[in-house]
Amino acid sequence: MNIYDQFRLDNKVAVVTGGSKGIGRGIALAFADCGADVAILARRQDELNHVVKEIEDKGRKGLAISTDVMDMKSIPKALDKICEEMGHLDIMVNNAGGNLDRKMHSLPEISIEKFDEQLTLNMKTKWWGSQQAAERMTDGGRIINIISVAAHRASPGFGVYSAANLGMVSMTRTLAVELAHKKITVNCIAPGIILTDMLKETLNINDQETHSTFDSTIPLGRVGEPKDCAAAAVFFASPAAEWISGQYIDVSGGPEGFSLSQEN
């Protein structure tokens, strides 16, 4: 196998939660580009069907399953259907997360109900997806948890989200050890500011305002796009990363605090 072939995903079956838009859609389409058949899970069937059409236009098999990851019974049912219809399961991307109401909640003021919701959506569902996928991976596999750079930064207004993401770093490392005997790798991708509908709805800004607000704060000079995260996901899912587990990578345009404006 040459180095190019090590980034192919031929004959693999991948699942992406939150796969109907944003980062999840970008990952699903990148997997299809690299030869994988892809199942996508999200709540809205019409949006899922559109992405499946894009997957099929790339010559791969797609499967859309309307699923609410907050319903703990839904993931096992969806994964069983995927194994039945697509034959097996090789790659699980736990991407669904964020904030359901698209609002900021400071730690001194957040309600216990909203606290539990944030923790469940951004940590519990990803642990559950990882566990259930691992049970169905019969010949090794890849589990990829999409978190956020908020995991290792102070995040006013997003404190529980930040804590849940940091919790997923710890869980990813432990799962990597506990699943190693099954030849399953477990890794995290931590996006920075990515231009998605969720970001714009949460901050109540448009595309132009997103660029004007954030481009100058990022060392590489621009906000990210879903394809930037998709490239990292392809790597972690591919044979090229078979000896990498329990790790996370920031996809953020450069480390916080770095500046290109320093004079020599």
- The radius of gyration is 18 Å
Helix content: 40-55%
Low-confidence stretches: 257-264
Class, according to the CATH hierarchy?
A: Alpha Beta
Adjacency order of strands in the biggest sheet: 3-2-1-4-5-6-7
Strand fraction: 5-15%
Q: Which second-level CATH architecture applies?
A: 3-Layer(aba) Sandwich
Which class best fits the helix and strand makeup? alpha/beta
Q: Sketch the topology as an H/E string, one letter per element.
A: EHEHEHEHEHEHHHE
Total separate domains: 1
Write down the overall geometry: globular
Mean pLDDT: 94
Which topology does CATH recognise? Rossmann fold
Number of strands: 7
Textual characterization of the structure:
- The protein is of the alpha/beta class and 264 residues long.
- It has a single domain, classed as Rossmann fold.
- It is built from 8 helices and 7 strands; from the N terminus they run E-H-E-H-E-H-E-H-E-H-E-H-H-H-E.
- It has a 7-stranded parallel beta sheet with strand order 3-2-1-4-5-6-7, with helices on both faces.
- It starts with 12 loop residues before the first strand and ends in a 13-residue tail after the last strand.
